[in-house]
Amino acid sequence: MGKMRAGKRDEGAERQRPENKGNALGATLVTGGGGFLGGAIVRQLRGRRLRVRSFSRRRHAKLEDMEVEQVRGDIADPDAIREACQGVETVFHVAARPGVWGPYETYYRTNVTGTLNVIDACKKEGVSRLIHTSSPSVIFNGGHMEGVNESAPYPDAFHAPYPETKAMAEKHVSRAASEGLPSVILRPHLIWGPEDNHLVPRILARGKRLARIGTGDNLVDTVFIDNAAEAHLLAADRLAEDPLISGRIYFISQGDPIPLWEMVDAILAAGGQPPVRRKMSHKTARRIGALLECVYTIFNIKSEPPMTRFIADELATAHWFDISSARRDLGYEPRVATAEGLRRLEAWLRQTGLHQTSPP
Question: Does residue 141 sit within a domain?
């Protein structure tokens, strides 16, 4: 898959041989292949016996076990990502700077500059298709979003650097598609499941301190990790078959919105913890968030505040999306139901010792 110069390549990577060369996706690259979603995409690609390369900052033992070629580098380094794209036909661009707090520059560097580097590398290396992972937060305006489809506009203003920079990245991918790079943008919402290193750990770690923000009956979409990963492969398959879907955006979820706090309680139960009992109004949460943002900024506190205005708005509002376009164009169906996903999550939490066997 080409000689690596800019990125650091693990010894023994050449031992991997091309497999199933007739598959339409060909050799694949997953940026952020060592992460939660990226790793799940890699597993499904390897399940097809495809040749897979991962690009991330460090080596991951789980990828080595799957015989995945690993290239280490900084996605903000255009030479490193171009080298990683050599000999690749399909790129899944998953790497991103997540979260709701931190310097704008760090988000821009990864989410915007990194995406521009991926686009440029795809063009220069003749990549056949790009699947870009985005987020529904790019259209969040602070209010309720109920049954929203892909025609919803970007908001006039953003309240956190993550959605702002991800929206900018989306626009660059859309522009690249209009200029001839076959691309599809996916917006999976609140991904969770075994090996989650973001949403589930945050809920479990804060379980004792959580309070229900708002009325508590706001419906939200989520998506189980295996379903989110499969949607990426389906998008790549469909793009290989039908270039006319290039440039399109798709929401991805379980297709079954439920009350947000019911889902939070279900994740807590999977971890052996009791449900959330405390309550707080949306207005109070916003005031606390504004105060904490001010304090953290003034004193240059690096950690994430326990509450921000953006978090308060997300926890108090409905946000669920119409996935009929993904069903129609990609053949997407959430094959793992939420109840089954929760069973798998609990089994994983027990296996890893994260399940609290004696609730407080």
Answer: yes
In a domain, 13, yes or no: yes
Does some domain include residue 213? no
Known catalytic membership, residue 104 = no
Given a contact cutoff of 8 angstroms between Cβ atoms, the answer to whether 114 and 155 are in contact is no
In 3D space, the residue among 215, 211, 214, 239 whose CA is nearest the CA of residue 330 turns out to be 239
Q: Is the pLDDT of residue 16 over 70?
A: no
Domain limits for position 174: 8-192+222-256+319-335
Catalytic residue among 162, 250, 296, 332: 162
What helix, strand, coil percent values describe the chain, rounded to 5? 45, 15, 40
Instruction: State pLDDT tens for residues 229-245.
Output: 999 999 999 999 999 99
Q: What's the pLDDT tens digit per position in 74-102?
A: 999 999 999 999 999 999 999 999 998 99
CATH code of the domain in which 166 resides: 3.40.50.720
Task: Indicate whether 1 belongs to any domain.
Answer: no
Q: Do residues 133 and 37 lie in contact, with contact meaning Cβ atoms separated by under 8 Å?
A: yes
What is the identity of the amino acid at 300? N
Residue 351 tokens, joined:
């296996």
- All residues at 6 or more sequence positions from 333 whose CB lies less than 8 Å from its CB, including other chains: 255, 327
Q: Give CA–CA dist 288/309, Å, rounded.
A: 8
Task: Domain count for the chain, please give it.
Answer: 1
